[in-house]
Amino acid sequence: MNNHKHSMFVMLAVCVLLGVFAFGCSSHSEQAETSQPATATAPIDPLASWNDTPIKTAIIDFVRHTSSPGDPEFVPEADRVAVFDNDGTLWAEQPMYFQLAFAIDRIVELAPQHPEWKNREPFRSLLEGNVRNALAGGDRAILDIIKASHAGMTTDEFEQIVKDWIAVASHPTLHRAYIQCAYQPMLELLAYLRANGYRTFIVSGGGIEFMRPWTERVYGIPAEQVVGSQIKVKLEDRNGRPVLVRLPDIEFIDDGPGKPVAIHRFIGKRPVMAFGNSDGDLEMLRWTAAGKGARFCALIHHTDDAREWAYDRESAVGHLDKALDEARAKSWSVVDMKNDWKTVFPAVR
Predict the structure, then answer these.
(1) pTM score, two decimals?
(2) In the predicted model, what is the mean pLDDT of the chain?
(3) Number of neighbouring beta carbons within 10 Å of residue 247
């Protein structure tokens, strides 16, 4: 397996080995904001959950310029591509990546079919609730978990497993469904960009087939506009029916330097806008900024320990160090979650 510390699977292990579970699980809550009804003289604010700070102004100005014919910064609609990291950028990622929570739940669900796991690591520790010890085995332990939880079934079967999990699984400290852990300001931003001719893509270190079953429902981003890490698949004939079977081998890691490669390979255009939240997004931001014409690069900085979490340089999850320094040096936008967002999560209905 690839040992890049921010890769989809190794990243999951690092977040545990470096002590993410030692943080403790404090409960976070947030009061839903009630918007004032629109009137004939008060136009609807497309970014209503954003405070009126320079970041909001910069986004609106950039979109206006790039979507206005005749403007010096105008970008043809076919070239209006905006890319977004997922974990920590579009939805929360603490105290562990949600895909890791999925993998652990999957192991627990399958355990009755595998009595041998009670005496075999890393499964023994996982079933005892000791995730740190389970992943202490490094890449070999991670591969065993991936084989058991992510591979060995068809792509259709895996899609249904993810749909079933995401429909009922809830966050351990936010006490809301994982799909309700998306950031309300980012949902508004996605809709605002699309209303102005932008195509919005996810470019994430997470598993592409873990994300695709729910991204359109949650973000309005269809499956074909989701780019992520992939495991290998192969075509098999089962009872006269062709199926794709997921294999326990890594095909591609969409993180760090892999992100510009994935953008080139699967999107085919350099983005005009890019949003991330960690050092794993730095190369994507650099790639976007290096293009000709108008460019907008931004980091989501987690600064709100009351409504969400506050973390950056020392965090094993969403580690933000070099990218933060470079953003400030190059005048990229840095979204201060505490000060720039009126609300973090959508109201639970």
Answers:
(1) 0.87
(2) 89
(3) 15
